[in-house]
Design brief:
This protein has one domain. The chain is built from six helices and two strands, in the order H-H-H-E-H-H-E-H. A two-stranded parallel sheet has the order 1-2. It is globular, with a radius of gyration of 15 Å. The two termini are 28 Å apart.
Length: 154
């Protein structure tokens, strides 16, 4: 399960569809409707929010909007509850955002090289609107890959 902190606009088709599917699964986990993934580290930040279902729903709403912008047919009725106003709910650290962007570029280099090339020039990485960025290290739940950590420190 990967619930990207970076804005879904950066994801390719495969990544965006996977994010929608995994976000819906995360919502089921937070509702208590599944026994799997209940301790998945990617869910920690949602579980720690004031209203986990509203938070994951609002997160999914922004993924839905990106899908809509691209002409995808994500079903908004699968989102149980959300707030459609742009609200910053969860803090995300600068290095977590940078790490996730590097991870995406790493994946896109193999899957969608043209998109990876286009994204290499991004200077200010945007995040899903439920997050607000604060200074800090990669999150413990981020499970960084060593190869990307070396590149991040360059």
């Amino acid at each position: 399960m990967r619930l990207w902190s970076i804005h879904p606009r950066y994801l390719d088709r495969v990544g965006l569809v996977a994010l929608w599917r995994e976000g819906i699964l995360a919502q089921k986990v937070l509702e208590g409707r599944t026994r799997g993934y209940v301790n998945h580290p990617q869910l920690i930040r949602f579980k720690n929010s004031p209203d986990p279902l509203l938070t994951i729903g609002t997160y999914l709403y922004h993924v839905y909007l990106e899908g809509l912008r691209r002409g995808y047919k994500f079903d908004p009725h699968k989102i149980k509850i959300y707030d459609n106003s742009p609200t910053s709910i969860i803090p995300i650290t600068t290095n977590q955002v940078r790490y996730e962007f590097k991870l995406l570029l790493y994946k896109l280099t193999r899957r969608e090289p043209k998109l990876a090339q286009n994204l290499k020039d991004v200077k200010e990485i945007q995040v899903n609107p439920i997050f607000y960025v604060i200074e800090g290290p990669i999150a413990e739940w981020g499970k960084p890959r060593d190869i990307l950590l070396e590149e991040l420190n360059r």
